[in-house]
Design the sequence.
């Protein structure tokens, strides 16, 4: 094993009843445990008691612990978690449970535990941890755990500072010498304020004061909003509290913009019913890509759907701390701007504060007052991040945080469409060349197949499409006619999928054909089109494919 100094110290000294590593993300805490866990299991082989792995959820335990160990040791030594919540690790039956499910964990009451491993311990219910204290009842029983730190009032921090037999280590991100500097620097830019101190420095610090201390009117409130690539709406619905709608947009400057707001307090004149709010939302959301609503407002979601079934509704990710961290990072990096007309949002950004009483209980909670527009912003930002992840632009993974993905490896056709939308419907030169080659690979077989097996009716269809091109009054109409002709070739060839792919690239191909017409002229475009019909009619598919290739290569030189 190639270990850091911190990891080597734990490997040598971590033989206490409680051995807990806390600190920064990607600092090497959990990686070491992929070797500690098998050592603990083998040391206790044949002894009485259960082996237990506990995570925040069973799913996170599978992703964070089981799967990385499978990658190291293989599936024969480390099985996946089975339906009965057990796995086989190094010949030992291991109970794998989520600390979020008290019913599952309660099954351990009355059982002796010889070894327990805990993942993301700070996220557990304290009752689960207290139960473990009584179950680790053998002289050889021990517990290993990892977590990111929280506030200093958290129950786990109090336990670490107690007189219990605890060996604890603090990890900062710079304690991991194997993490590439570029990744380290990227992660440091992703966090700010209290989140930087916890997830980068590995410190137990309180979330206190302003939630967004980096927010400045002079910096973040701007009236010079650029053209938007697309927009969406975040919604915080209140039956007795104020209701806030927020239109967000991705600007050509790369920022997310809060463009306009709807804000209505329940006690104000002109009180609204749920149906009234739904009508207002339909009007407010005109032209938006989607509407993101707090999932707890289920009744309002149903009302909005009834009012307008076509309204693109999405249930928001309402995780508070990740959402706050995302907004804070965007503000700190100047990736979020707010238009002056969003008056309630601006006021709430300045007054949004942490609840000091929750810190005394070891919890991170903002004060639940004047938070409706900021909640709508948080829902919208979380959806934006999720959407970028879905399209292949971001990689979001437990323990690794959020990183920019290689969308060429992770994306799809939808990713390409999003890139083109960002560039005003046009791809960059490299992408354009790739699309043109793809078109050749799609259409050349169709030309050969149609030339070999066409019917008189097929030729009649092609000649009708050709006449439409000849009658086109201008360049735009001619480009559309050329598109219909070549799509017709793929349809008549008998392949049912190729025309669909043609349709997917319709907008960019119309731009290409317009450029082609301007490059070679209208008459040459029509002569080439007639040549395609003649070659297909003569059964000369190879020559038709060569004509296509020559035309595409000729156009490429003009890009």
Sequence:
């Amino acid at each position: 094993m190639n270990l850091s100094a911190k990891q080597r110290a734990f490997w040598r000294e971590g033989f206490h009843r409680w051995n807990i590593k806390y600190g920064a993300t990607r600092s090497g805490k959990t990686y070491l445990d992929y070797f500690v866990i098998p050592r603990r299991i083998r040391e206790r082989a044949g002894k009485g008691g259960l082996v237990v792995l506990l995570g925040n959820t069973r799913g996170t335990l599978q992703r964070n612990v089981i799967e990385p160990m499978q990658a190291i040791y293989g599936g024969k030594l480390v099985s996946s978690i089975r339906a009965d919540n057990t796995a086989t690790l190094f010949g030992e039956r291991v109970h794998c449970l989520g600390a979020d499910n008290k019913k599952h964990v309660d099954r351990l009451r009355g059982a002796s535990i010889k070894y327990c491993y805990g993942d993301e311990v700070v996220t557990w219910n304290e009752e689960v941890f207290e139960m473990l204290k009584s179950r680790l009842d053998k002289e050889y029983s021990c517990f290993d755990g990892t977590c990111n730190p929280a506030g200093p009032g958290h129950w786990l921090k109090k336990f670490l500072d107690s007189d219990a037999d605890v060996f604890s280590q603090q990890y900062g991100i710079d304690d991991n010498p194997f993490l590439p500097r570029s990744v380290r620097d990227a992660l440091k830019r992703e966090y700010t304020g209290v989140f930087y101190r916890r997830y980068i420095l590995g410190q137990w610090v309180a979330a206190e004061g302003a939630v967004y201390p980096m927010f400045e009117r002079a910096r973040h409130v701007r009236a010079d909003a650029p053209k938007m690539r697309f927009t969406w709406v975040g919604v915080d619905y209140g039956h007795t509290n104020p209701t806030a709608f927020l239109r967000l947009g991705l600007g050509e400057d790369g920022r997310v913009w809060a463009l306009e707001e709807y804000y209505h307090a329940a006690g104000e004149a002109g009180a609204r019913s749920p149906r009234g709010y739904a009508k207002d939302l339909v009007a407010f959301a005109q032209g938006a890509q989607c509407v993101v609503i707090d999932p707890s407002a289920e009744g309002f979601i149903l009302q909005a759907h009834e009012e307008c079934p076509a309204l693109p509704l999405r249930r928001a990710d309402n995780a508070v701390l990740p959402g706050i961290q995302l907004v804070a990072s965007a503000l700190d990096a100047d990736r979020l701007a707010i238009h002056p007309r969003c008056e309630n949002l601006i006021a709430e950004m300045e007054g949004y504060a942490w609840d000091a009483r929750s810190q005394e209980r070891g919890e991170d909670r903002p004060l639940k007052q004047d938070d409706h527009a900021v909640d709508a912003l948080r829902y919208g930002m979380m959806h934006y991040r999720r959407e970028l992840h879905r399209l292949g632009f971001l990689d979001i993974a437990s323990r690794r945080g959020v990183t920019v993905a290689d969308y060429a490896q992770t994306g799809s056709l939808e990713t390409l469409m999003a890139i083109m939308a960002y560039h005003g419907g046009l791809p960059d030169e490299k992408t354009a060349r790739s699309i043109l080659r793809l078109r050749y690979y799609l259409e050349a077989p169709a030309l050969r197949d149609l030339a070999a097996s066409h019917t008189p009716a097929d030729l009649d269809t092609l000649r009708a499409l050709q006449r439409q091109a000849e009658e086109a009054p201008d360049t735009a109409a001619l480009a559309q006619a050329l598109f219909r002709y070549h799509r017709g070739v793929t349809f008549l060839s008998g392949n049912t999928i190729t025309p669909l792919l043609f349709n997917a690239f319709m907008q960019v191909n119309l731009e290409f054909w317009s450029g082609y017409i301007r490059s070679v002229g209208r008459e040459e475009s029509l002569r080439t089109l007639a040549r395609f019909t003649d070659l297909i009619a003569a059964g000369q598919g190879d020559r038709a494919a060569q004509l296509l290739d020559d035309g595409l290569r000729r156009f490429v030189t003009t890009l």
